[in-house]
Amino acid sequence: MSNIVRLGIVLAIVTLIAAFVLAEIYSVTKPRIEIQKKAKEREALDYVLPNAKVLEPVSKKIPIVNDEGDTLYQKEVVEYYRAYEKEDSTGLIGYAFKAEGAGYSSIIETMVGFDTWGDITRIKIISQKETPGLGALAENSEPFEGKKWSTQQFRDKSVEDLKVDKDGGEIVSITGATITSRAITNSIRTEMKDLLNRIEFSPKDQTKEN
Amino acid sequence: MSLITEAVKGIYKENPVFRLALGLCPVLAVSTSIINAIGMGAATTFVLLSSNTIVSLLILLFGKILSEEGQKSINKIRIPMFIVVIASFVTIVEMVMAAYFPELSESLGIFIPLIVVNCIILGRAEGFASKNPLLPSIADAIGMGIGFTLALTAIAFIRELLGSGALLGFNIMGGEFKPVLLFILPPGAFLVIGIYMGFLNWLDERKKRSS
Amino acid sequence: MEYSIFQIIILSIFVNNFVLARFLGLCPYMGVSKQLDSAIGMGMAVTFVMTIASLVTWLLYTFFLAPTYENVFYSLFNLPIQDVPDLTFLRTIVFILVIASLVQFIEMYIQKVSPTLYRALGIYLPLITTNCAILGVAVLNIDLFFIDGLPAESSFIHTIVQAFSAGLGFTLVLVLMAGIRERLEMIGIPKPLRGLPIAFIVAGLMSIAFLGFSGMNIG
Amino acid sequence: MNETADKLFISTSSPHLRDTDSINKIMWTVNVALIPALIMAYYFFGTRALWITLLAVVAAVATEALVHRVAGKSIRIHDGSAVITGILLAFNLPASAPWWMPIVGSVFAIVIVKELFGGLGNNILNPALAARAFLLASWPVEMTASWVSPREGTLSGISAITSATPLSLLKDSAEIIANPQNYEPGRVQQAQEAIANLSSSYSNLLIGNVGGCIGETSVIALLIGALFMFYRHVLTWQIPFTYIGTVALLAWIFGGSEGLFTGNWIFHILSGGLILGAFYMATDMVTSPLNSRGQIIFGVGCGILTVAIRLWGGYPEGVSYSIILMNLAVPLIDRYTVPSVFGEVNKK
Amino acid sequence: MKIKSFHGGVHPFEGKEFTEKKKIEILPLPGTVSIPLAQHIGAPTNPIVEKGQEVKAGEKLAEANGYISVPVHASISGKVKGIEDIDHPVAGRGKAVTIVAGESEEWIDTIREDKNYFDLSVDEMRNRIREAGLAGMGGATFPTHVKLSPPPDKKIDTAILNGVECEPYLTADHRLMLEYPEDILNGFRLIMKILGVQRGIIGIENNKRDAVEVMRQYINNSNNIKIAVFPVKYPQGAEKQLIKATLNREVPSGGLPMDIGVVVQNVGTAKAVYDAVAHRRPLTHRVLTVTGSGIREPKNVLAPIGTPFQDIVDFCGGLTEKASKIIMGGPMMGISQPHLKVPVVKGTSGILILEEKESHLRPEEPCINCGRCVLVCPSHLLPTTLQMLVYNERIEEAEDLHIMDCIECGSCSYICPANRYLVQTIRHGKRQVIQARKKAS
Ligand SMILES: Cc1cc2nc3c(=O)[nH]c(=O)nc-3n(C[C@H](O)[C@H](O)[C@H](O)COP(=O)(O)O)c2cc1C
Ligand SMILES: Cc1cc2nc3c(=O)[nH]c(=O)nc-3n(C[C@H](O)[C@H](O)[C@H](O)COP(=O)(O)O)c2cc1C
Ligand SMILES: Cc1cc2nc3c(=O)[nH]c(=O)nc-3n(C[C@H](O)[C@H](O)[C@H](O)COP(=O)(O)O)c2cc1C
Ligand SMILES: Cc1cc2nc3c(=O)[nH]c(=O)nc-3n(C[C@H](O)[C@H](O)[C@H](O)CO)c2cc1C
Ligand code: SF4
Ligand code: SF4
Ligand code: SF4
Ligand code: SF4
Ligand code: FES
To answer: What is the Cα–Cα distance from D302 to D324, expressed in whole angstroms?
Structure first.
């Protein structure tokens, strides 16, 4: 047996031991990592639809096609969530979805919830890498006073209202960061419009209670 | 050299960042806030300590069980072996951080896996731990780790203070202060480290002149 | 949302320049920018290795590590998809070993095939193993072009394009830096700043200038 | 007369004759050339423009003196280069800038960009522009959020946005026309009108009756100064003309909203900081190439980058970034444009 | 003829008005002269006279030493006082034969007009030129007979007569052309005959219209000689730039004019050639311009070689109070002299005296990269870059950037607004290159 092969085997053994140890640790940490990952999304959902007891994902399947045109498999993608008031998945109170728009220096993901009237309940910025101190102020969720951008200002807005002030709408944009504000506002509007059409949404025929 | 001096040299005289200019990328990338700096410093120190320990032990082990010739040939795969050791510890850090400190893990991003290629670590494993017994290797790792963390924190201190007017997230510059955004943007990192290095050189020169 | 190939090129070279905005590859940026000739050599070597390394790591990740539908356990051994082992935790270990041996291999290969190219790149290749930009781009490709562990559309092409243009962006700033440092050699920089400190300040100013590209052509 | 026989005369090596031009003359010429634009700035933006300029100049000169003092060099503020830096920095700020901004900018320009490199002649970036980029990155809101509207200034007849700069108006309008679905129909129509009416604003652009930085708006005043600099041989044609020419050409080709070759290139030349940049800042000799072939490459490069940033970048204006980006390439340009020596072509 | 100029150059203050209208005056016989043994490029001569020996004017004092060398002759008659080291205006120190004038002036008797001089053999002509001690009078003092003996493989097709006199202040060549046009032309014809060329061109700058007219009158019936008039620009008179402007040919980098079939001679040299061939008159006197703000009566003077500057200055009314710098030659390339005891040599085209305020070198300021030095360099070099390289002792890179092609015209230093000592540093760098090359071989 040549020396090289012997050394190769030694190295392989070392690597295997390492891999084994890692696999052990991974099996311990993996569940927690998954929980952390889900927790974030879950947290956002809970935030945008505070009254929901059950949030049911509605998925669609996207066929993945290879070069010959055969469908290889169906990819499942969560389209939106339905929110129910009761534990037993009854009493639809609203929907939630994720909107994505290109901001100043990143793609901004926003979780949006709206009620059965088609009015937004709350929004939450899930991820963004905009300029700190500027576009990143988009995450601000302090109570809205009518002067300064806050995610709270989206409350009770309907699709038609979603335009930033510079474009003639009602959304107060972040000072000096119109691009970011526009990206968020416009992405919500576009996707929400789209979604409303797809789920053939019509406001419930009842007066809204506060 | 006593263990203490072994550990202390990494802090000022042979500071890995300011003096040896090693492992620069994470230093610049994660020094936007002190929290990040300390997190990165701790992760790096952990890997450094573990790998120095294991490497030192491995060499000891080979010395015990292998013949002269066996040691020589094992020497040829020394580096890949060190890399495997280091990479394993890095992966451990990566997983643990993702599981228990998700926020930190997100803001440090790909610089956690990149600890593998941080030349401080391989450099110390190869240059120090493989040639020294266990205790000095540990002392060296602690010193270098602290030196790295301190440098990182020193940079983060300036960047966070000027760039967001806060320290550790507490606003301390008062409401009037308009943060100098540049300092948390990439250019700020370069400028701050450059000026630190120049300042240290100047201090050295002055000391040399006065003595 | 996905970027087009053109956008990936512009973004990786200018907007998110690997060195100036992402802070990757700083050691060679500072270490090999004293002379123009070596900067050009290093730039070419990095671009080359980066592209090859990204290609190989993408293949490994897709076919062996991640529980994808391309994974060999699924496509060759017909394991049910939920039983395909998730080896993603080995990413770091596998990538670094692959890159290290790849560099060795490329070095030997070039030496045999093209001695001229070897003379131009040879001395830089060993330095590249511990250059975080190579591992960085490999990891970043996974971060960017895989969604929930599955390769996004055109992820292979995008990976290659991103790696190659990241290399070009690296070369660009390295060569600019080398030109500037050659000039700085000849003038009276204050003494404590000579060498690395002034190079960092130049890098800072360069990074300020590159902010001019920020916001370019996204979306 | 024999006492001269033993006198020792002054010995120096040739040449014994010197041109009368000096650094001081060159620099003060530029300062004088900037005065007409300053007067126009005062006229349109009021005394605040003067205060900002004064603060910037005093800060620049004082900082330079202080640095020289600390470094133990002889203080050479009389050469006027710091004054130019101060004025040009102020010219690149909006008149609404807070008082501390010109001061912080000047300190940055002089300390970080100029003196750390060894002072006059050694800096690699244009100090005033690098400082502007620093201010823009640090306080983007203060630098762009509110433009002081000039006296009775209007642009394209849209009074609601008179305070916008011409280029931001152009950029916003282009964006609106490209994505009409995102806007109220009224805004879309307004934007179309704005673009159609660009040419009616030429005279305001010429005299400077538009929003913008303190010193960049009055094209006429800047050109008068430039003529003076040409007369005093401080300028050569290469950089300004290739720069402006490239911008005009590319703006004409790519700048239109109705396809290629429909751009309004006159508007692109007259608005923003192009005239200021091309004649006063790209021409800073310290940070531009040595010989004319290099200068032409430099000018063309600035032009390409300016148009790229204006049309596709994140900012409405690209002049300052394009110049500092090209500054970075100057050592390379110089290296690859070494003229062929006399007699080299004939060498067998 | 289509005239192209050369690239670069400067327009310094001309200063010619002090002397351009002044006839050449003959200096009264000096009391002593010191005639250096080395007045040309090449090996110094071997003295053949001894201390105490009586010599006549025109008598040979020292013999040429090898091929690239020419003899020197006594310029006055008298007694040899000694052969010792004196201050030399070009070389710093050097051996010279000092002669104390005798009672009366006595010349050697071989100086005679030779009516058929034009029919002499070319070899005899060269021989007479060499025996007469001719070295180029345009400044470089290269032995003329060598220049007139191109190797057979170099085909010479054009001779150029250099009457440009582009140095500010100097008017010696100008006056020579006005007062001795026939001698100059005859000399030029001899040069053309020796070289076997059919084409001769006289180059004159546009500020000497009168000289152009005079020369034109005298050549009107010979169609193989033409006059080329050039715009006023320094260094129009530099050989390579003159050839470029006249013929649009470039002397290859590192080469000689004869590589492209041209020989250039100064007008003073041409007159000396005529004197040497037609009269067998050795080179004992030369015309020089005494000028500048520091002299009371600027003049053009014909002076014996070896005359101390002091005698010439006295003849021109002496120095003014403010005089503080003495320059041998013009202001652009001339060499400043610490005192007035130095003698006139074959290459002395003038003595320029400047006042205090014109004399000092201003302190060097930082280069602002303005590129003016690059713009004016007639050799297309990058003076500021070369200077930086020399300052940083990066001599090899300077050599790669053709530092050796610098003709040391000084245009770069003249124009630099930062008073950089460009040509000065470059000269130093050239010396270092030569040393390095010597060490290598
Ligand atoms: C360094 C820097 C970072 C910026 N980051 C953002 C950002 O994150 N979001 C944004 O909308 N604008 C950002 N801008 C500002 C834009 O370039 C632009 O000036 C601004 O959007 C103008 O819009 P306004 O109409 O809100 O004033 C940034 C500017 C600079 C100089
Ligand atoms: C910068 C420079 C300027 C010169 N100007 C003149 C000039 O104006 N007239 C002249 O006869 N020679 C001038 N020369 C010398 C000529 O190059 C050349 O040596 C001379 O004309 C040859 O003639 P000669 O051998 O008869 O002296 C100059 C040389 C240099 C380097
Ligand atoms: C070292 C040296 C060798 C030369 N050799 C020759 C030669 O062989 N033939 C010739 O015609 N001129 C020769 N020259 C003369 C040059 O062509 C030129 O006329 C002389 O250097 C004076 O030119 P300038 O006054 O322009 O510097 C030589 C000059 C030097 C310095
Ligand atoms: C034509 C000309 C243009 C100049 N432009 C600038 C400028 O844009 N910004 C600046 O700070 N200094 C400028 N200066 C002044 C000076 O050259 C500059 O401060 C140097 O870069 C300092 O080393 C200029 C000088 C001249 C002669
Ligand atoms: S990784 Fe390479 S280039 Fe970077 S510091 Fe270490 S040895 Fe130097
Ligand atoms: S030697 Fe000097 S003055 Fe005489 S002609 Fe030549 S350059 Fe002109
Ligand atoms: S570098 Fe030489 S040739 Fe060029 S201008 Fe200066 S002195 Fe004249
Ligand atoms: S002329 Fe003087 S200041 Fe201008 S580039 Fe040349 S050396 Fe520098
Ligand atoms: S290259 Fe990034 S840490 Fe060295």
So the answer is: 9
**Residue D142 CA, ligand 1 centroid: distance in Å:** 11
Ligand with minimal distance to E239 CA = 2
Decide which of E244, E279, E314 is a domain's last residue: E279
Within-domain flag for C166: yes
ipTM for the complex shown: 0.87
Alpha helix positions (H), chain D: 23-33, 35-45, 47-71, 81-91, 100-107, 127-138, 140-144, 166-178, 185-196, 202-207, 219-231, 238-254, 265-270, 274-276, 292-312, 319-336
Non-local (6+) Cβ contacts of B171 within 8 A are B165
Tokens matching residue E198: 């059919």
In chain C, at which residue ranges do the beta strands (DSSP E only) sit? 146-147, 150-151
Task: Report the number of distinct structural domains present in chain C.
Answer: 1
Residue of A149, A160, A167 for testing the chain D interface, max D β-carbons within 10 Å: A167
Residue C204 to residue B122, Cβ atoms within 8 A: no
Ligand closest to E383 (CA) is: 7
| CB-defined site of ligand 5, < 6 Å | B 22, 119; C 27-28, 31, 127, 130-131
Closest CA to B140 of B49, B79, B59, B61: B49
- Calculate how far, in angstroms, residue E164's C-alpha sits from the geometric centre of ligand 2: 8
Closest ligand (CA of D283): 4
Q: What is the pLDDT of residues D77-103, one digit of tens each?
A: 899 999 999 999 999 998 888 999 999
Token couple for D157:
């007849």
Could you tell me the two tokens for E100? 């104390």
Name the more confident of B103 and E318.
E318
β-pair type (E24-26, E299-304): parallel
Q: How many domains, chain E?
A: 2
pLDDT band at C130; cut points 50, 70, 90: low
pLDDT at D160: 35
Is the beta carbon of E379 within 6 A of some atom in ligand 7?
yes
Phi, psi of E295 (to 5 degrees): -115, 145
Distance from the alpha carbon of residue E242 to the mean position of ligand 7, in angstroms: 15
Name the domain boundary from E279, E306, E323: E279
Query: How do residues E406-435 score in pLDDT, each as one tens digit?
Result: 999 999 999 999 999 999 999 999 999 999
User: Considering the domain boundaries, does residue C145 fall inside one?
Assistant: yes
| Cβ–Cβ contact C208 with B under 8 A | yes
Q: Is C217 inside any structural domain?
A: no
CB E306 near ligand 2, within 6 Å = no
Residue A43: band (very low, low, confident or very high) from pLDDT cuts 50, 70, 90? confident
A144 C-alpha to center of ligand 1: Å? 22
pLDDT over 70 for what percent of chain E? 99
- pLDDT tens readout for residues A159-198: 888 888 877 788 898 887 888 898 999 999 989 988 888 8
Residues of A in contact with D314 (CB under 8 A): 104-105, 179
Which atom of ligand 6 approaches the CA of E167 most closely?
Answer: 3
Please give the residue that has the higher pLDDT: either B20 or E67: E67
Ligand 8, pocket-test mutation among E10, E384, E413, E424, most atoms within 8 A of CB: E384
Residue D341, by phi and psi: left (phi above 0), alpha (psi -120 to 50) or beta?
A: beta
Residue E12 within a domain: no
The DSSP code sequence of D57-71 is HHHHHHHHHHHHHHH
Q: Is B24 in the pocket of ligand 9 (CB under 6 A)?
A: yes
Question: E357 lies in a domain?
Answer: no
A 10 A CB-CB count for B175 gives 7
pTM, entire model? 0.89
Domain of E396 in residue numbering reads as 372-440
Q: Is the pLDDT of residue E51 over 90?
A: yes
Q: Coil, strand or helix: which one is A193?
A: helix
Query: Best residue in C174, C187, C208 to probe D by mutation, most D CBs within 10 Å?
Result: C208
